[in-house]
Write a structure and sequence with these properties.
Mean pLDDT: 76
Largest sheet: none
Low-confidence stretches: 285-305
Shape: globular
Distance between the termini: 22 Å
Helix content: over 70%
Order of helices and strands: HHHHHHHHHHHHH
Number of helices: 13
Number of strands: 0
Strand content: under 5%
Length: about 300
């Protein structure tokens, strides 16, 4: 087992515990860009690690009653078979070595979507921070929910990104009355069979590397627990802004951008994020970041475990 890889898993786990997002969106490009793992092996190993980690958070949400089970069922109707389809699609479209290039570009595109989703989710959480937390009756819309699961499952099967970052953003749009903790709990529980199905699909094709997956699990599980504790004190807005910058830089690198382009875009995004955080703090003297990182601790702690 590679101790450096486990250390990287620890760092990603801390980010996940702090922000509630970024598991697959960070770990997979780190495996590809830093450790030189082939993209398919990176995706399958990250999915296997997620299948081990996500039940921890799902169990907590289930005990708290913050899971909308009918919604989970309709999401899984679309996502589980679609996850297998994503794995098969890679083989049909680009059999052999070319599959590595296909998944690398697909991963880059998914990271761009994840960054946009993270920004959308953060802004939506801020808008709802001052609203009362009373539960509102939510009526499940079966067809749109199953279609969302199908699209999310396809993206996750292709790239390992999306189970916690992309699906939850669309759920915000489909079900604006759903409480934040119920939203996160529902997304987390539906992601368990989703990532398990995708990981199984990759394993059937022999893409899974158990040594890589084990190293990621060994580091990321304690990292998530550490990040969850730190989330009560760290400013979530700053951490999530940093995560957006990392996602953008990783996406551009995977899409073949040069080092200078990556550095310029990442620097501009960092400056923009700092400016937005500063403006939000000036316009919110009541310090809503405290609400974001403490008042919605269930979201921060378990959204992408």
């Amino acid at each position: 087992m590679d101790p450096v890889l486990a250390l990287a898993g620890l760092g990603v786990g801390i980010v996940v515990g702090l922000t509630g997002m970024g598991g697959g969106a960070l770990m997979t490009p780190i495996l590809v860009l830093v450790f030189g793992v082939p993209p398919v092996a990176a995706v399958s190993s990250d999915l296997a690690a997620s299948a081990v980690m996500k039940p921890f958070g799902g169990f907590v949400h289930a005990r708290r009653g913050t899971v909308h089970w009918p919604m989970v069922g309709w999401l899984c109707v679309g996502s589980v078979p679609s996850a297998f389809l994503g794995v098969l699609l890679l083989r049909l479209v680009a059999p052999g070595p070319s599959v590595q290039h296909v998944i690398q570009y697909a991963l880059g595109a998914a990271l761009l979507l994840a960054a946009a989703g993270l920004v959308t989710k953060t802004l939506a959480a801020r808008r709802r921070a001052g609203q009362p937390g009373a539960a509102a009756p939510v009526r499940v819309r079966p067809l749109p929910t199953a279609l969302l699961g199908a699209v999310g499952g396809l993206v996750v099967g292709l790239t390992s990104v999306g189970s916690g970052s992309l699906i939850i953003v669309v759920l915000l749009v489909l079900y604006p009355a759903l409480r934040a903790n119920d939203l996160v709990g529902t997304d987390l529980v539906q992601a368990i069979p989703l990532v398990s199905a995708a990981a199984l699909g990759h394993a059937l094709f022999g893409d899974l590397h158990l040594d890589i997956a084990a190293a990621v699990v060994v580091g990321s599980v304690p990292g998530v627990l550490i990040g969850a504790r730190l989330s009560a004190y760290a400013p979530a807005a700053v951490v999530r802004s940093a995560l957006v910058v990392v996602l953008l830089a990783s996406a551009l690198k995977l899409l073949g951008a040069g080092n200078l382009t990556v550095a310029l875009v990442a620097g501009a995004a960092a400056l923009g994020a700092l400016g937005v955080v500063g403006v939000l703090r000036l316009r919110a003297p009541a310090d809503p970041s405290t609400v974001d990182s403490r008042g919605q601790s269930g979201e921060v702690t378990h959204a992408a475990i």
